[in-house]
C-alpha cells in the first residue's frame, strides 16, 4: 500500500504575480519567466486556470475535464516543470480554479456532458449538472439553432449534426424526437433554458459541487496537486454561483489540508465577507476601489456630474438605472432562471395544498432580484439584505403586495429550494445588470466604473482610508490586493490617467466638447465614455495596435451598454458613426491636436497617480498581486485586450538596466517594494497612520506598517497649483529614516523627500 506523502507546511504569500497561461504562453513558457519574477521581488506565481478546457481557449474558464491539466497549456509535465523551477527559486504557486461550471460549446470535448446528452437521466453524470428535466419534458433544451435554420439539423454517421456542431445519438434511436435533448432556436434561451449556466453564457453549464460525489470527481486533479506538493494555494472563481459557498470552502479546506485560498467575491460598499468562510479573503476588488477613490479629487464630483447630465440630457439617477437594468436582465436574458425559481415556489406551495398566480410570482421574483442590494446572501447570513430587497420591492411595486406575503417566508427559509435557487441567481442579475450594462451607460468618471466598485461613490478622504486599512489589517490581513486583473474594465494606468479629470473638469469639458464637434457620435454620453478610454489608453509607443484595440473596445462598450445597439441586434448606422470617431483619432489632424494637448496636460499627474496607486497596493495590508506586465504602464482596456501577450524579455532588460522604458520608474517602485515585503516581512505586520502638517498636508497619505512607512502623493494637479509641498512635513516616529527608493535620508520634509518620485518607502537606517 502506497502512503500519501506528507503535505508541506502551510504557506502564505508576501506577494503574487498573475500569469495568463494559454496555448500561446504555456506552463513551460511561464517556468522560463520565473527567474525574472524572482528578481522583481515576487514571492508566489499566480496562474490562470490550468484544467483541460475548450480547444483553443485563451482564458481556461471553460473547463471540459477535471482529471488532467490542459495539454495545450503544457499538461502534467508542464506543471511539474513550473513547480520544480518555482521550488528552486523559493517561489510559491497559486492556481485559479473554476468550481461553478464547465464548457459545453463542443460537447464531444466534455465527456460528462456528452454522456448526459447521450443517456439522459440514466447517465452516471446526470446528477453533476443542474438541470430541471421536468421543464424540458425530460430533455435538455440546447439553444444553438439560427433563425429559420432548423433544416440544417441532420443525423449523420450515428450522430446529430448542426453544421459543424456534433451531438450524440441515444442508443437504439434514429430520430431527433427520441433524443434526451432538443436543439432549439438560440432566442429560446431567455425563456426556455432548463440548465443553470454561468451568468447568461449558454456554453458554460453549471455543475453541482454541493453533491459530495460531484465535488470529489471535479477536484481529482486539484487534490493531486496538493498531494504531490505541486501547488500551495488556490483562487476560487465565482463562489457566488455555488449552492452553498461556505460548505464548498469547508470541503476545499479538507481536500487541501487548509491551504491558502482566496475567493473572487465582489463586495458592495459596506458589505463584509462572511467571517466564518474558510478563506484568507477576496481577490482584491474591494482594495482597488479604495485606492482609486483615495486618489480622486472630491471637488470634481459636482462639475463632472453636471457635465454628464448635460450630455445625457437628463439627471442620471444611478440607483434607479441599476434597478431598471437589473430588472431588464431578470425579464430578458436571465428570465429562464426567474421561471425556474417560480417553478420551485409552485412545488413548495403545492406540497402545502396552496397556490399562487404563476405570472405574479415570476414578476415578484424579478422585482426582488432587481432590488437586491448586494450580489447575494448566504442564509442565515445576510438576512438583512433580503429584508432590504423586500422593503425596496414593496416600495417599487406595491401592486404585488399579496405575492410578497406569499414569498417572504419561503425566501427567508434557508433550507427551502426557492431560497437556495434565489441566492444563486441574484449575483447573476447583479453582474449582468451593473458591470456589464450600467457601467457602460454612466460616463461621469469612468475610472470609478470598475468591478467591485460603486461609481456613485466618488472619492474618500485620508481619514476614511486609514479606518478601512486598520479594519483590513485586523480582519483580513492576508486577503489579496489588486489594481489590474483579467476582468478589470480598464487597466490600472488607464484609470490613473482618467482620475486626473476629476482635478481638471473644466479643461476636460472644453476638450470633450471639441472632440464631439470634430468627431460627432449620436450619443454624446457614450462619446464621453469613449474619449475617456482613448485618453486612458493613449501612449505613443502603442500607436501601431491602438486603432484595432480601440475599435474592439468601442464595439464591446456600446453593445454592452445595450441602449442604442446590442450584440444580437446591432444598429449598423449607429455603430459606424462610433467607429468613425475612433478612426478620427488616427486620421484627423484636428482631433489628434486636441487629444495630444489633453494628454500632455494630464501625463505628469497621471504618472504620479500611477506610482501612488502601485506603492499603496504593494504596501497596504493584504497580499499584493501584480497583474502580468503591470510593472510597466498597464494601458489595457476590457477583455480580451487585457489578456494580450507580455514582452517579458523587455521587462527583464529594463530591470537589468540594459534597456530603457518611459515606465522605468514604475518598475523601480514595484521591484523595490516587492523585494522589501519579501525579504523583510516583519516590517509589514501592523498599521498606524502617519500624519502630515503644513500647507499641503491634504495631498499626502502616509502609514507605518510596523517599520516600513509608505508615503504617497494624492491630487497632484492641486498640489502643483498650490505651489508644491512648501513647509509640509511628516510626523515620523523616532529614529533615522531613509527612502529605499532613492537611498536618501529624510527628516520628514516632503519637498525634499518627494523631489525625485511622488512616492517614498521609508525604513529605519541601521
Structure description:
The chain is of the alpha/beta class. The protein has 26 helices and 24 strands. The strands form six sheets. The chain has an eight-stranded parallel beta sheet.
Strand-helix topology:
Blueprint: E1 16-19, H1 27-40, E2 44-47, H2 75-89, E3 92-97, E4 101-103, H3 111-119, E5 140-145, E6 153-156, E7 159-162, E8 165-168, E9 181-185, H4 189-192, E10 197-198, E11 201-206, H5 212-218, H6 220-227, E12 233-236, H7 245-256, E13 260-263, E14 281-282, H8 285-294, H9 301-312, H10 318-331, H11 335-351, H12 358-371, H13 383-396, H14 401-412, H15 417-435, H16 462-475, E15 480-481, H17 492-499, H18 505-518, H19 524-537, H20 543-561, H21 572-587, H22 589-619, E16 623-627, H23 648-656, H24 664-679, E17 688-689, E18 692-693, E19 700-704, E20 708-713, H25 716-721, E21 729-730, E22 737-739, E23 745-746, H26 750-753, E24 759-764
Parallel strand pairs: 1-2, 1-16, 2-3, 3-12, 5-9, 12-13, 13-14, 15-16
Antiparallel strand pairs: 4-11, 6-7, 7-8, 10-11, 17-19, 18-21, 19-20, 20-24, 22-23, 22-24
Helix pairs in contact: 1-2, 1-23, 10-12, 10-15, 11-12, 11-15, 12-13, 13-14, 17-19, 17-22, 18-22, 19-20, 20-21, 21-22, 22-24
Structural class: alpha/beta
Main sheet summary: 8 strands, parallel
Overall pLDDT: 97
Low-confidence stretches: none
* Helicity, as a percent range: 40-55%
What is the count of β-strands? Answer: 24
Strand order of the main beta sheet, please? 14-13-12-3-2-1-16-15
Determine the number of helices (DSSP H or I, runs of at least 4 residues): 26
Determine the N-to-C terminus distance.
56 Å
The gyration radius over C-alpha positions equals: 27 Å
* Beta fraction: 5-15%
Amino acid at each position: 500500500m502506497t502512503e500519501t506523502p506528507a503535505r508541506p507546511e502551510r504557506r502564505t504569500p508576501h506577494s503574487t504575480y498573475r500569469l495568463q497561461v494559454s496555448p500561446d504562453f504555456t506552463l513551460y513558457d511561464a517556468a522560463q519567466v520565473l527567474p525574472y519574477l524572482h528578481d522583481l521581488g515576487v514571492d508566489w506565481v499566480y496562474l490562470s486556470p490550468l484544467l483541460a478546457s475548450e480547444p483553443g481557449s485563451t482564458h481556461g474558464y471553460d473547463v471540459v475535464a477535471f482529471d488532467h491539466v490542459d495539454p495545450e497549456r503544457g499538461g502534467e509535465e508542464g506543471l511539474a516543470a513550473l513547480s520544480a523551477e518555482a521550488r528552486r527559486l523559493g517561489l510559491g504557486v497559486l492556481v485559479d480554479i473554476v468550481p461553478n461550471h464547465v464548457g459545453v460549446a463542443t460537447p464531444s470535448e466534455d465527456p460528462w456532458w456528452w454522456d448526459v446528452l447521450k443517456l439522459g437521466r440514466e447517465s452516471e453524470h446526470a446528477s453533476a449538472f443542474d438541470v430541471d428535466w421536468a421543464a424540458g419534458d425530460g430533455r435538455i433544451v440546447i439553444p444553438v439553432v439560427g433563425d429559420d435554420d432548423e433544416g440544417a439539423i441532420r443525423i449523420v454517421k450515428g450522430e446529430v449534426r448542426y453544421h459543424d456542431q456534433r451531438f450524440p445519438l441515444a442508443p437504439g434511436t434514429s430520430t431527433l424526437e427520441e433524443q434526451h435533448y432538443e436543439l432549439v432556436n438560440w432566442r429560446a434561451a431567455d425563456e426556455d433554458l432548463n440548465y443553470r449556466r454561468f451568468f447568461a453564457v449558454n456554453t458554460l453549464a453549471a455543475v453541482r459541487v454541493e453533491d459530495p460525489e460531484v465535488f470529489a470527481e471535479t477536484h481529482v486533479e486539484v487534490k493531486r496537486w496538493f498531494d504531490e506538493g505541486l501547488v500551495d494555494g488556490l483562487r476560487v472563481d465565482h463562489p457566488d454561483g455555488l449552492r452553498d459557498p461556505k460548505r464548498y470552502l469547508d470541503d476545499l479546506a479538507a481536500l487541501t489540508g487548509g491551504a491558502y485560498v482566496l475567493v473572487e467575491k465582489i463586495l458592495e460598499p459596506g458589505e463584509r465577507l462572511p467571517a466564518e468562510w474558510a478563506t484568507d479573503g477576496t481577490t482584491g476588488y474591494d482594495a482597488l476601489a479604495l485606492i482609486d477613490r483615495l486618489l480622486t479629487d472630491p471637488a470634481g464630483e459636482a462639475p463632472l456630474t453636471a457635465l454628464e447630465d448635460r450630455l445625457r440630457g437628463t439627471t442620471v439617477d444611478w440607483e434607479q438605472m441599476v434597478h431598471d437594468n437589473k430588472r431588464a436582465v431578470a425579464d430578458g436574458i436571465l428570465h429562464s432562471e426567474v421561471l425556474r425559481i417560480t417553478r420551485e415556489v409552485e412545488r413548495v406551495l403545492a406540497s402545502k395544498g396552496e397556490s399562487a398566480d404563476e405570472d405574479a410570482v415570476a414578476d415578484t421574483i424579478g422585482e426582488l432580484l432587481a432590488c437586491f442590494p448586494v450580489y447575494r446572501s448566504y442564509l442565515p447570513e445576510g438576512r438583512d439584505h433580503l429584508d432590504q430587497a423586500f422593503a425596496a420591492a414593496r416600495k417599487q411595486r406595491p401592486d404585488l403586495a399579496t405575492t410578497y406575503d406569499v414569498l417572504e417566508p419561503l425566501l427567508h427559509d434557508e433550507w427551502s429550494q426557492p431560497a437556495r435557487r434565489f441566492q444563486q441567481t441574484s449575483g447573476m442579475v447583479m453582474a449582468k445588470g451593473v458591470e456589464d450594462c450600467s457601467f457602460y451607460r454612466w460616463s461621469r468618471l469612468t475610472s470609478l466604473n470598475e468591478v467591485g466598485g460603486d461609481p456613485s461613490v466618488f472619492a474618500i478622504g485620508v481619514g476614511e482610508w486609514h479606518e478601512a486599512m486598520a479594519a483590513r489589517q485586523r480582519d483580513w490581513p492576508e486577503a489579496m490586493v489588486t489594481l489590474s486583473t483579467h476582468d478589470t474594465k480598464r487597466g490600472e494606468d488607464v484609470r490613473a490617467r482618467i482620475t486626473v479629470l476629476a482635478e481638471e473638469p473644466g479643461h476636460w469639458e472644453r476638450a470633450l466638447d471639441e472632440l464631439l464637434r470634430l468627431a460627432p457620435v449620436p450619443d454624446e454620453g457614450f462619446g464621453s465614455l469613449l474619449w475617456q478610454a482613448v485618453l486612458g489608453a493613449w501612449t505613443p509607443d502603442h500607436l501601431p495596435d491602438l486603432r484595432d484595440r480601440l475599435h474592439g473596445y468601442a464595439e464591446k462598450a456600446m453593445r454592452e451598454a445595450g441602449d442604442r445597439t446590442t450584440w444580437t441586434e446591432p444598429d449598423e448606422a449607429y455603430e459606424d458613426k462610433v467607429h468613425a470617431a475612433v478612426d478620427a483619432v488616427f486620421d484627423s489632424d484636428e482631433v489628434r491636436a486636441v487629444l495630444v494637448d489633453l494628454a500632455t496636460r494630464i501625463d505628469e499627474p497621471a504618472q504620479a497617480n500611477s506610482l501612488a496607486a502601485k506603492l499603496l497596493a504593494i504596501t497596504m495590508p493584504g497580499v499584493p498581486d501584480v497583474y502580468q506586465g503591470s510593472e510597466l504602464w498597464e494601458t489595457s482596456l476590457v477583455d480580451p485586450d487585457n489578456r494580450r501577450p507580455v514582452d517579458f524579455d523587455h521587462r527583464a532588460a529594463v530591470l537589468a538596466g540594459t534597456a530603457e522604458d518611459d515606465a522605468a520608474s514604475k518598475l523601480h517602485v514595484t521591484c523595490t517594494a516587492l523585494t522589501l515585503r519579501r525579504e523583510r516581512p516583519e516590517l509589514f505586520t501592523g498599521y498606524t497612520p502617519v500624519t502630515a502638517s503644513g500647507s499641503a498636508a491634504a495631498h499626502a497619505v502616509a502609514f507605518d506598517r510596523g517599520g516600513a512607512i509608505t508615503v504617497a502623493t494624492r491630487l497632484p494637479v492641486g498640489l502643483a497649483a498650490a505651489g508644491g509641498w512648501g513647509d509640509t512635513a511628516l510626523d515620523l516616529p523616532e529614529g533615522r529614516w531613509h527612502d529605499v527608493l532613492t537611498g536618501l535620508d529624510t527628516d520628514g520634509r516632503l519637498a525634499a523627500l518627494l523631489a525625485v518620485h511622488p512616492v517614498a518607502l521609508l525604513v529605519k537606517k541601521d
